[in-house]
Amino acid sequence: MLRTSLTAAVSFVLAFVAAFVLLSLSGVAHADETSATDKLRILYSTRFTFTDEGLPLITVEIMGKRKDVKLRAKSGLVVRPDGQGGSTIEADGGDAWTITAENTKPAVIHDWTVVETLQPDDAAGVTAATARWKERGFEPRAFEVGTVFGVDGEVIDTREVRIAIDPVPAGKGAARAAEHGKRYGLATQVHQELVRRPSGTIVARSGGTVIRNPSVLWFTPKKPSETVSVLDVPTGTGGSQLETGTEDRRYWGAVYVTLDHDGSLLAANAVPEDKLLAGLVPAEMYPDAPPAALEAQAIAARTELLQKIGRRNLTDPFLLCSTQQCQVYAGAGKEDPRTTRAVEATRGLVLLRDGGGMVDVRYSASCGGHTEDNDAIWGGDPDPSLRGRGDDPKAQLTRVTDDNLGAFLDGGKDAWCSKGKLGKGRFRWTEKIRADDLTARVSVDYPEIGRIKDLVAKKRGVSGRIGVLVIKGDKKSVEITGDLRIRRLLGGLKSTLFEVTRDGDSFVFRGAGFGHGVGMCQMGAMGMASAGKAHDKILGHYYRGTHLHRLY
Fold first, then answer.
1. Maximum CA extent, the chain
2. CA dist., res. 536 & res. 293, Å (int)
3. Residue 513 DSSP SS3
4. Where are the domains of the chain?
5. Can you give the pLDDT at residue 498?
6. With 0-12 CB in 10 A as exposed, 13-18 as middle and 19+ as buried, what is 338?
7. CB contact at 8 A, 423 and 289
8. Which of 82, 146, 221, 510 suits a disulfide with 158, CB 3.0-4.6 Å?
9. What pTM was computed for the model?
């Protein structure tokens, strides 16, 4: 069983070569489909294959920007320069390999400003949008992102077409997008186009054996039951965003080493979905949570994983990154039998909208008694599956406002997320910050305001989370927009669902919840599961107008 998964992992390369061409509108010239000198193309594809067991095979970043990569396995490693079916190389005593790169050239990437987003079947809309931006003096391009696949009679389509203008070198796109957004009154974003992939030779050494191959080398353990160990992985990947050290990590499936944008080395893992989720779910929810909550989390994580494919990391040789921007993944050895059972029990189950398509799954640790609308946190269009609602089945409150916020914070004892010991410090909390300390924090970004005198919520979402905060100083007042921006500016508050009072020379923040509050409340899921609710009822509570479907 495991052997077929590993075989599928290393055959991933040839499967793509035989079946797929990278679908993009970038207009980049490529070598022919079977060129041995163009091995990177398949790694940048937005598609994925299935293992012999019928599970999606996902490629996940391990680490990048490396001068060398060191690998090992207990029984030794097999090197496959051309993937399954091609040549295999085993060094004498080859349990460890060191990989470097030679004669490298960096990638060329352009940042485009996305000014409109349309559905892939809206040909008339794409034509009209292109003409509209040409009249404004631009040479617009249409980029299709996302992927489409059919399984068991269900077609999953996550594609969208982005109308983009004004390409600039990578790194300058955010500023240019902001300029265009202000000029035309639009919500803009940056789309990255890979104009030229990085190139070079990958060199692997073990003892007296040296292997050189263009662009990529794949490694699998000699024994299928073993894992590949990657040495000195920064602990900032697969967890904290801060790189505080390194550790050796193990990975199921195959590990491949290729080139990063700047021509340095990048290591990634081709892993079956069940192994990936078994490592992800324990990082997202306490393994000692009730089984139904773990099952809901497994379904949410699987849906999120598949929904992201082809929509992120478009210029990278993998489908998903391993940090909190994607899903936290730190390889094998992080599994827990309880979360693994939840993954197995929900095999292939994903959450779909009643009107079609995958749910844009979001979740946070604790909603504090009321979930939030997606557009109140991130802007964009309202998502009918991500509407804020009360987490208290007995309460009649439909919206938290300045007028009822105090009563809301005083109550909520019947909310699902108030149950259990794990969520107590997240359900309700109080932070006290001296005015001088708060002024020092804020003045780093806004030195012009002077000493802080007051903080006033100008705009709140349906849950009471602050979308716009006015910080009043003795010299000037400023408006701070955005949930995460407000929380970080005020020293890392658990959420923006709070009220502020003065206590002498200090500000007292009394709040509720931990995180943005959109979608599933993980503490609430635990509370519902403890009350006997099954995973479908939990997901139905937090994602309206949805249903479960087994894809495989």
1. 75
2. 10
3. coil
4. 2-106+198-345, 108-196, 362-521
5. 96
6. middle
7. no
8. 146
9. 0.81
**Percent composition of the chain: helix, strand, coil (DSSP 3-state, to 5):** 25, 35, 40
One-letter amino acid for residue 186 of the chain: L
**How many CB atoms are located within 10 Å of the residue 379 CB?**
11
Using DSSP's 3-state secondary structure scheme, residue 483 falls into helix
- Per-residue pLDDT of 335-392, as tens digits, reads 999 999 999 999 999 999 998 788 999 999 999 999 999 999 998 889 999 999 999 8
Confidence at residue 224, expressed as pLDDT on a 0 to 100 scale? 83
Specify the CATH superfamily of domain 108-196: Sporulation related repeat (3.30.70.1070)
The pLDDT tens digits of the residues spanning 108-149 come to 999 999 999 998 889 999 999 999 999 999 999 999 887 776
Distance CA 481, CA 380 (A): 14
Q: Quickly list DSSP for 460-478.
A: E-TTS-EEEEEEEESS-EE
Are 510 and 501 in contact by the 8 Å Cβ rule? The answer is yes
**What is the DSSP code string of 90-102?**
--TT-SEEEEEEE
Helices (H), 190-261: none
Tokens of 83: 């993937």
The answer to whether 390 and 398 have CB atoms below 8 angstroms apart is: yes
Q: Are 498 and 518 in contact (CB under 8 A)?
A: no
Alpha-carbon distance of 355 to 287, in angstroms, equals: 33
Q: How far apart are the first and last CA of the chain?
A: 16
Place of tokens 């105090």: 406
Average pLDDT of every residue of the chain: 85
Number of neighbouring beta carbons within 10 Å of residue 280: 29
Type of residue numbered 254: A
Euclidean distance between CA atoms 269 and 71, whole angstroms: 12
Torsion of CA 23, 25, 27, 31, to 10 degrees: 0
**CA–CA separation, 510 and 512 (whole Å):** 7
Three-class secondary structure assignment of 282-324: HHHCCCCCCHHHHHHHHHHHHHHHHHHCCCCCCCCCCCECCCC
Q: At what angle do helices 273-284 and 291-308 cross, to 10 degrees?
A: 120
Does an H or E element contain 405, and which?
Answer: helix 405-410
